[in-house]
Amino acid sequence: MEKFNKLTAVAAPMPLVNIDTDMIIPKQYLKTIQRKGLGKNLFAEMRYNDDGTEVEDFVLNQPAYRNAEILVAGDNFGCGSSREHAPWALLDFGIRCVISTSFADIFHNNCFRNGILPIEVSPEDLSKLMEDAERGANATISIDLEAQEIRGPDGGVIHFEIDQFNKHCLLTGLDEIGLTLKKEDKVAEYEETRKMQQPWL
Amino acid sequence: MGTPRTLYDKIWDSHVVDQLEDEAYILYIDRHLVHEVTSPQAFEGLRIAGRKVRRPDATFAVADHNVPTKDIEKGITDPESKLQVDTLEANTAEFGVPYFSMTDDRRGIVHIIGPEQGLTLPGMTIVCGDSHTSTHGAFGSLAHGIGTSEVEHVLATQTLVQEKAKNMRVTVHGDLPPGVTAKDVALAIIGKIGTAGGTGHVIEYAGDAIRALSMEGRMTLCNMTIEAGARAGLIAPDETTFDYIKGRPYAPKAGAFEQAVAYWKTLNSDEGAKFDTEVELDASELIPYVTWGTSPEDALPITGSVPAPSDFADEGKRGAAERALKYMGLTAGMKLSDIEVDHVFIGSCTNGRIEDLRAVAKIIEGKKVKSTVNAIIVPGSGLVKIQAEDEGLDKIFEAAGFEWRQPGCSMCLAMNPDKLAPGDRCASTSNRNFEGRQGQGGRTHLVSPAMAAAAAVTGHLTDVRELD
User: What ipTM, to 2 d.p.?
Assistant: First the structure.
């Protein structure tokens, strides 16, 4: 997993609440057995017309936002399915950070496993960042994960909260499975005890 | 006596293997269910790292999302769907994971066959790369969906790194009136608390109305918990639960079963246990629900009307309502019961069980599906199909003009050939009415099986209590 520390990039505004995982990556693209290659299908049904041409006014089709690496989105981003194809598609497109007032739990977890930083901010801060994002390519937003800060184009700073374990994993690009496997003896010990207490399992 | 604990606290405590950092714990996983869509990249990850599946005996796989529900003997014609199912078959063989193939009578939707086979037991932790894993909480097991990276983590370590969620209790007092089902209770709750209402929580359902539900009804309710934003729903196990489990193929056998029941009886929230959030509903006030928009929280009683964007105080919700009305092709103020449908879908992990099919049969026996409606019934598993046929339900369905299909996820998410065309409108017993969910441009109204049956007969959303 790629590390995440600092990022200064264009932020695309998506002021829509309940952006669900079916919108992020429609099910017809879930048939892949790869993690890569989903970026072209990100938000496919909002982004393309039936004939495959681009929907002009969709935010990521506008010249200012084609290279966006940050999304600023409405409440409850990523609700719906557990499909990790949603963060894979975001990442493959180039999005490394999503800012919203809240995230669905499973999507939130999936982001951290893929080097994407989901940041939760207050409704007031979100409106401010949404306005910043609407100014297009001339207004980049900077994220500093170590300092837990978002810096707007006008120099305003927003502090954000994040749990320490996920922060550590992102900063170091940690292989979580490797980390757990180091605790294998504890897992084995647990299994032994359980076998005696609940032999039917 | 220690501090009173909730059911969630108890299951959590009994599965903590170790604490990693402030809020991160290693949690042991008792049962891992696997399907074809969210597992290929996880098995590939194991292969690349040279890792094994730690406990194949605690893992179980089946293909459900891509499986056709017609002419299954011809196999899968879509090459991508076929590759995904073939990949699952190859991966389960390579890693020694038990697997029900597409020709096995015991196959079906993963959340239907888990309970059916006795793989789902009270007090367990259960995960699957599918958000509707919350279904299994109906047995008093802590069950939730995970992403593919987490699937790989569980395959390799039989554990997950987790933070503890908050406790929410939803109490439904009183008795459900006739015609009102677990699906209506679920939609009423989501309509009340919203699709983000349960975010960060595990919901325990309590109250007389919940106790009175069958296991099928409890599974429907827990299944829809994810649509309220909570990853897991829980119902404390009781005699209804134990009776359902007894004798199932993977359930504990005589002797062990009694020992297990003694333990399962301790799985309930202690008197005085603290819930971070409490929600209460009065069952006697509920009537059948339908959704009008593109989020499960857009749920209203069938006697209501399509709302106007201006009915919403919140700016974000107003924008969402405007978009939803446009997508759904509806006008504010029209009566919900005037909405005409051209498709009816009965099935899914929400409502594809035998009790659901019996409810449909009861409504449509002696009636006909309206000629303008295309109606299909997809049983949740091969065993549900066999049982329905043993009871003669298939004859009732076919006589009424329903298509009787083979099991799978089908039109709930349209990854197989069953899908809506743009503009098609469907009364559906599934769980999500998102844009494009049942096919690009398709329009979904979520309802109970009885309500779906009523809509099939009349050709419009209908209060099943008023059907002659």
Answer: 0.95
